[in-house]
Amino acid sequence: MLGRLLLLFILLPLVELILLLWLADLTSWQVTVLFVIVTGAVGVWLVRRQGFRTWRRITEEFAAGKLPAEALWDAAMILVAGALLLTPGVLTDLVGLTLLIPPCRRWYRRRIVRWFNAHTTVHYRSSDTSAEPRRAPEIIDSYVVRQEKESG
To answer: Is residue 97 part of a domain?
Structure first.
């Protein structure tokens, strides 16, 4: 796991830097900087728009008494999309933009849920193992009395 994280934190920025330098070589450094700024600004705008829409969906499903599992997954992926779009780079921008497209988000969600189902196990255990009925907890009311030291 540590090796994968190191690879992610070393290899991904290196690839991003190479792609940005390649883009600057194809166009100019001004166009590359403008690309980074525009993708960040457009990303923030899209994230806010979709974030508010998803937030509304979550509250509506809660109000209807449903668990908003899909909407919560969408909210998490929109949050990740925002972080990726604010990160300067070509690959992170592409992945961030795909996370903001609902059909792509559904595709990612299916893959992530499938991965979780394959790599995790859920065990259920009842906390009440006795057959006797539950009683209300006993409440004890108390107060503290301060005791003065005796002078000698």
So the answer is: yes
88 domain residue, yes or no: yes
Using CB atoms within 10 A of its CB, is residue 42 exposed (0-12), middle (13-18) or buried (19+)? middle
Range of the domain at 103: 37-119
pLDDT at 54: 93
What residue type is assigned to position 113 of the chain?
V
* CB-CB contact of 106 with 34 (8 Å): no
Tally of structural domains, the chain: 1
What pTM did the predictor assign?
0.71
Rounded Cα gap, residues 94 and 116, in angstroms: 24
The amino acid occupying position 21 is L
> Could you tell me if residue 69 is inside a domain?
yes
Residue at token pair 């008494």:
65
Query: At residue 131, does pLDDT exceed 70?
Result: no
